[in-house]
Amino acid sequence: MSAPILECRGVGKHLPSGGRDLTILEGIDLVVPRGDFVAILGPSGSGKSTLLGLMAGLDRPSSGSVLLEGRALEDLNEDALARMRRRRVGFVFQDFQLLGNLTARENVSLPLELTGVDQAWERAGDMLERVGLGARTHHYPSQLSGGEQQRVALARAFAPEPALLLADEPTGNLDAKTGRAALDLLVGLRESAGATLVLVTHDDQVAARAQRRVHLEAGRIVREDARA
Amino acid sequence: MKPSTYVRWMLRDSRGARGRMVYFTICLAVGVAAVVGTAALADGIDRGFDQESRAILGADLTVDAKRPLPAELDAALTTIDGLERSDTVETMSMVLVPGTKARSRLTRVFAVRGSYPLYGEIVTEPRGGLEAHLGPDTVVVEIDLLTALGIAVGDSVRVGTQMLRVAATATGGPQQTGFTSFLAPRLYVSQEAFARTGLLGFGSRVQYRALLRLPGPPTRERIDRLVERLEAAVPDAAYLDFDPYHQIGRGRRWIQRMEGFVGLAALLSLVIGGIGVALIVRAWIAGRTRAMAVMRALGVTPTQILVLSLGHTLLLALAGSAVGAVLGCLLPVAVRTWAPSLLPVEIVSVIPVGAVLRGVGLGVGLSLAFALPALSAIWRVSPARVLRSDADPLPPQRLVQVASAVFLVGAVFAAAVVQADQTRHAVWFTGGFVLLIGLLYLAARGLLAFARRVPRRRLSPYLVHGITALARPGAGTVGAVVALGLGTMVITGIALVETRLREAILANLPSTAPSVFLIDIQPAQREAVRAELEEVGAREIDEVPVVMARIAAIDGTSVAEIAQEEGRGGWSLTREQRLTWRKELTPDNEITAGALWSDPERKELSIEAGFAKRLGVDVGSRIEFDVQGVSVTLHVTSLRTVEWQSLSLNFFLVAEPGALQGAPALYLTSALVPEAQEQVLQDQLAAAVPNVTVLRVRAVLDQVMALLERIALGLRILGAFTVLAGLAILAGSVSASVLHRRREVALLKSLGVTRGGVVRLFLTEYGLCGALAGLVGGGGALLLAWTWLEHIADLDVSLPWLALPTAMLGTAILTAVCGLAANYRALRVRPREVLR
Question: Would residue B195 count as lying in a domain?
């Protein structure tokens, strides 16, 4: 078995709140093998999104260690973390997080330009074509529907061909039908790219598409199960 | 990342930033325009001096004296081959048109010999120059004299005892700088005709001048050598005034000093604009936090974001500075078009490259320096905000904060050094600026603390909400108070100093102050003058004798030897002194050392204390005078101070009666003449005793006031720049929060607050902000104005405390109106549009 792409060792996160120490996460141990599709499930406030942030080095754990492709993230400074993300990690957010002053195509080409890829502009166009938005490339996010915005976000996440894709409630802001379509697209893109996907959701139907499900409650992993 | 990618991103980033760009540009352009404008004006004047310095002098070198130029000088000059020479004799005299209704005007009479001037040109109408029109019975005059006398070319005027025909009018000519050129028009006459006028009689106050033009290139070295040679050849050289063209420039030195002060005033508007830049950048960064977090999540490093933001700031700074530079370049053009008389020389209009570079450099440098502390917040944007909007900002980097603050103060100081002509002034400027910012900052923080704690009971809900809105995060209260306060301080301070100065000049004239001075009355004319004065109902008539003399030696050491000593005497020592004798001193004199006429054995002298210090003499000193060739020795037995503001007849040197027995004296008379009778008196005296000069205090004061008015106007314009910068900042910070405001207004409306109610809320908020800025700024202005008037201008003035409420109210109204105007769009919002 090859080395895991992601590993959490005893990860904890505490935040000061009203003079007390609030525990968000506690003693998280999790290993994600390369190419896996893992869903993290749990009710609101269980610490799912925080865990996702720690996995990407967006946030720093209060205790324990997160290893991405064998490198401990806490050893890296902000610039090094950013460089690591740009090459290895893609993101999909619940509220899309497109840059409002950039067109759809510019949003997609941004990570490509960042890594200095040749023909970033053309590749961004191709990527939008693949998510079915070939005719909307010059539109700004405010001119697109929620489903369309999430498709732009998917194109942006997959464009630089990341090894690890992190998705935070990717269907949370969409109606049931649009959400299903977006999820289909996400799963399809992942399969063709062979990327690892860690997806956070509170929706059992969404989680059902994953190979493996990690159940989080009050900041702790309470249960794990795998698709038969 | 490739540079081209940075540029592409920067351009994309500027989308939807129109408001920010406009306010950034305005904030900066105002200050840069002030800096470039003043520098361009000074540069134009300096070039004017450079190009025209020979024309201003009319020569490469002039030699001046109050007595006819010595024969040794003439002899020395004739030995120089190819030297061109022209001579003038200049005096002030009343020129008159006789007749039943005589009219007269104080005039500068120039008796010229040779081809005058040697450089530059006096343009005559009809053409031909002075040489073509000056004959034994003709004069050429400036048009102002014709207007004053109500005559035309071809008519005759009386100059001294002679009737001379006006052959032409003249414009231009050398020696146009200085106060007398401002006071009296000129009349040119040939030296032959002048000799017949009798104006050159005994005791006339006359300036003899030789204008010289060297053969070949008049390099500075050659002229300096010539001066050395002449000084060696003339025994009385200490009494001669050598003026080489490259050193002209009392006017020029004055311009340079003014440039330093005005430059700092201009810098103040730029620095206030810098505060605006800081606020705009901060609001921008705050509004971009989410986008920055997304970029961070996508792998853009904080350093790359900083470079992008800096690049963005740099672009805006360049744009704002360019706009300001263009506006600034128009200032000399505007002044030349609308107020050419404001300038001592014709300014030379070239594109002021130096001024533009300086303005753009200072504009860009200061905007970066002011933006840096705000930009350092980029490091604190947590990428985790993409997942949780309440993610904590990253811990501040103390080093970055401190370094950017130090860099900012350093940049302000460096800019002040560039602008000021003395480092000392730059230190004062920076120190004062930091101190004031500190005070305004503390006042603003105090207001915020008050706003947070305002009791909610028994107060109108509008008032409470308006007050608490000041403390809302991102309300920009602190920045607005600081910037508006600085602007208020500058403009109030200038207004205070100006009005106090004007009042001091007028109020210090006692009601018995003379309104007319009659100068150079000859002994035989005393009776006639007194009769004329009595006829027009003059009061407070005071007549004193004046004896012209030179100081020959002090305590046995000759003036020529003393003049070699460092820091002593100078011009005070070698000028023609005016002495008088009096038995009793007037009440505005106070003896500070020794006692008046206390030594029966000797001929005594009483000296004004300041003048004694310049001469280096004290009670007990012995001064030997050369009174028109006769040696007289006087002993200093008292020193005194004089209140010159009384305008009474006062002298530095007063001799004991009898000490100057037999010395040739002229008389000086002052009198209080009813205003309506002044012109009558002047006309009658000009007819009866044409050599007597009539100086009318009101006319002179009017001229002084006019000059003061012009200077004040310039300062007020500069002050207006600072207020403009302050308002631009306020509008900018309001517009930065306009989205937020729209939401707030929509919510308030949906809760049942009427539009009028929202207006009241906003009025309270902005009015309070403005009132506080006005209070601190006005207080600072009072303090500065008082310090300046009391300790530097040495005027005893009472400060108008009313200025404080005025400044408060004025700033409050201005701020409230400006704040409302900037919120116009937010006020019109319909709740449904926003809350959907």
Answer: yes
